[in-house]
């Protein structure tokens, strides 16, 4: 018998789905010979798989429905609605993947790039749903490197009233995870892989390079 209502805490959890499809697609994504077109498609597919993981803790409840044959108890997502917030640019590549599974989600945008010298984030655009305080927020960014950008984005949505925040990323460095755990221990992280670390320029190694440039064919 399923519970009448489910709602699990996501506090501080790092989920790395152990799945052959995730491993296979991530290997293709990292490969330097992968084309822009293929890269975009893989980001979309990986995001779909990670969204399945990231939404496992959304609350659901019992509802009575009628099939063509009889009445039955079904389950329906309850409680807060979702706001998806990509961190521009690279997070935009993940947006359609989430929206194809949660088509009714509201979308907020956080424009941010990291200064190449200081590795500090520079915010250049923010547009969030007015009722973000009442929503489960899913932040999207393929790369969690130093964690400076994600930490700033979490602060931005919290300043707007958000109290439930998750991050979906594709690759993280241990340094980035530590940073989020330290500054925002309530934020759950779902990531396809945690890599070895950062190089002297703050890039994740082995990583995949610059996610935004690979998504959009810049540089
Ligand atoms: O964890 P951090 O050290 O902050 O690094 C990660 C950030 O760097 C990349 O964005 P970038 O600055 O390249 O902007 P872009 O998406 O416009 O390319 C990436 O998409 C993250 O936002
Ligand atoms: O490895 C990295 C680090 C930051 N941003 C990226 O796109 N890649
Ligand atoms: Mg970039």
TrEMBL record:
- Binding of uracil, residues: 204, 209-211
Entry keywords, A to Z: Allosteric enzyme, Glycosyltransferase, GTP-binding, Magnesium, Nucleotide-binding, Transferase
An example GO CC term for this entry is: cytoplasm
Which cofactors does this protein require? Mg(2+)
Gene source species = Gaiella occulta
Q: What is the enzyme's main class?
A: transferase
Q: Which reaction does it catalyse?
A: UMP + diphosphate = 5-phospho-alpha-D-ribose 1-diphosphate + uracil
The family database entries (Pfam families) matched by this protein are listed as: UPRTase
Protein name, as recorded: Uracil phosphoribosyltransferase
Question: What does the UniProt record note about how this protein's activity is regulated?
Answer: Allosterically activated by GTP.
Spell out the family assignment given in the record's similarity comment: Belongs to the UPRTase family.
Pathway info: Pyrimidine metabolism; UMP biosynthesis via salvage pathway; UMP from uracil: step 1/1
Function field: Catalyzes the conversion of uracil and 5-phospho-alpha-D-ribose 1-diphosphate (PRPP) to UMP and diphosphate.
PANTHER family, sorted? ADENINE PHOSPHORIBOSYLTRANSFERASE (PTHR32315), URACIL PHOSPHORIBOSYLTRANSFERASE, CHLOROPLASTIC (PTHR32315:SF4)
Any one GO MF term held by the record is: GTP binding
According to the record, how does the cofactor bind? Binds 1 Mg(2+) ion per subunit. The magnesium is bound as Mg-PRPP.
Stated EC number for the protein is 2.4.2.9
Binding, 5-phospho-alpha-D-ribose 1-diphosphate: 89, 114, 141-149, 210
The keyword Ribosomal protein belongs to this UniProt entry's keyword annotation: no
Q: Which NCBIfam families match?
A: PRK00129.1, upp
The gene for this chain is upp
Q: Which GO terms describe its biological process?
A: UMP salvage; uracil salvage
Question: Residues in domain Phosphoribosyltransferase?
Answer: 17-218
**CDD domains annotated for this entry?**
PRTases_typeI
